[in-house]
Queue: 3 jobs
Job 1
Amino acid sequence: MKYLVANWKMNSVDLDLWEKKFLKVIDSEKDFPKSHEVKLIVCLNLYDYQLFSKKIQSSKNQIFQNIILYAQDVSRYEEGAHTGQISSHYLKNIGLEGSIVGHSELRENGDTENIVFQKGLKLKEQGLSNIFCIGEDLATLESSEKKSFLLNQLEAFCKKDVEPNLLAYEPIWAIGTGIEADSENIKSSVSIINDFLEQKKINTSILYGGSVSVENIHEIISIPGIEGCLVGNSSLDGEQFAIIASKITG
Ligand code: PEP
């Protein structure tokens, strides 16, 4: 099984157009991977969620019907005076299946390793899945501290029965910049992550995120150990997202 995750962030997406363009690719691609070969996940805001989940439910297309919806963030708290936050309990009640945790844009806004862990815990308590994001910034890469940096992020999250359901390696310098990480860097990160997961007996799939596009998906998905991608900008267009999906084989 491979995975393709869309992160729409706070962008406005024309949902009708997205669906239309997505379906156009599916209709023209006879070999479009089946839902048991590639799992498609869209992480979206709660307003779009209400509209998009209705579209999914009423769709006659099986691939579109099988798109899974996740939130982009979750509160580390249960309930109470936490203005603007959304609890895992609420996410579950409205029908979302999980959430991203540890995205670098949230880490930049104050999510420490411990907060990311607490968010993972809250999802687990509700039986929801996480997509756990890790990745180094350029200064860490250049000072050869990538390994200890990634291990620290992994150690801080994988405790008290919390573990990644999907793990996205997203070097910060490659997110939204148009500069995708080179294969050697991705390979060395996959090896660091895999050694850790093996040691902890954690079974999860590693995804890559950072300027994935129609042009580079083939190269990225061919890297041993990469079992899918998390896509920001290129996921905002239904056609590009579907083309990327069509190039991920199961
Ligand atoms: C992301 O949002 O995690 C991401 C990888 O974005 P982009 O594909 O735009 O780099």
Job 2
Amino acid sequence: MADKTIKGLEPLAQTFEGASQLRIAIVHARWNDKVIKALVDGAIAALLKQGVKEENIVLKTVPGSYELPFACQKLIAGGKAQAANAAPSLLGGATANLLSLVDDPARTGTPGPESSSTAAAVREFDAVIAVGVLIKGSTMHFEYICDAVSHGLMRVQLDTGTPVVFGVLTALTDDQALERAGLGRGENKGHNHGEDWGNAAVELASNAAQWG
Ligand code: DLZ
């Protein structure tokens, strides 16, 4: 039988040698948590598979998707400031954690919230993955938030020069969101887009360093 669609991203044959050195942040909203959890798990699994070290993956949360651009902007700026201030004499616990966002309370295991005293905390982020799930309700809220978040995240990456992966589902129904996180309720569970976002972060972070 012919494929139903030609749509989608073919896996890259290429691997990224420097992946173990990359520092990646995942910032996720907590609205529509069941879907968010699966997407974040998918993104983390892809990052680890690509060779990113667990200790170089930083998780942060915000209440809803509307907060994602602000959080990404602060996180990227904080990482750059930490890297710039990290003179060798200051290392060893004196590096203040400039990040004021809430660490992810749902994940106390690994990979977990960063500690301000770890060596990884003094490096800037090579890419940020912003994860949110917007599901249309009966008012115009959905349209306004989708518009603000997509433009906001684009602005953050262009303004900061740090790649921001658009891990935001804009679904018209619950089922659309579930299927895009591999949680479909029908026979077809769908595909977890979080995996694509993890791969995109590694590809962009690896290539952007050479483009600059
Ligand atoms: C208010 C709101 C609504 C109606 N729907 C969603 C949603 O589907 N997904 C999401 O991530 N956030 C939603 N929010 C919350 C907003 O993103 C934001 O957190 C609040 O308006 C506070 O700024």
Job 3
Amino acid sequence: MGRDLAKVLITEEELQGKIRELAARIDADYAGKDLLLVGVLKGAVMVMADIARALRLPVQMDWMAVSSYGAGTKSSGVVRVLKDLDTDIAGRHVLVVEDIIDSGLTLSWLLQNLKSRDPASVEVCALLRKPEAVKVPIDVRYVGFDIPNEFVIGYGLDYAERYRNLPFIGTLAPHVYGGEGD
Ligand code: PRP
Ligand code: MN
Ligand code: MG
């Protein structure tokens, strides 16, 4: 692993501090409400697990797995549902938990999909956002960190399914992925 990592962008301590901050805001905003957290597999696994444990509110947790459709481009905006929610979200307060908003295409599609199911509300909590990469502006209520347009790994984020288990966010050395952008 060592040589594949270019640098640590956000340390484990910084991540956990931000998680506590976001959880406190969510606790305050949803006090007295029945909240359903929806994690987007697989990237959101770490942030979902940590946010959920940092909350004081009792919440329910559900998961969706989605995949960009078509070869080549990472996010075509056409999304396939690999695993749908188990929960009927009609009338529910839903908070979508994501690891990163890159182009915004995945979340844009997902939000439209979820809103069509008549929830009481849908908001987004994204640990990371790349303002320079965004193609579709997303209204995000809770953002952890705005980061530069670099290929990031760790804390749920993968490169070719690896590095998800790093407890921090790092950037990948260009030699690993051929030096091209994300
Ligand atoms: C990554 C990331 C977000 C999405 C963001 O997921 O976890 O879900 O891409 O990209 P976008 O804003 O450009 O749409 P990915 O499709 O790699 O699946 P994964 O979570 O299983 O790694
Ligand atoms: Mn993802
Ligand atoms: Mg991925």
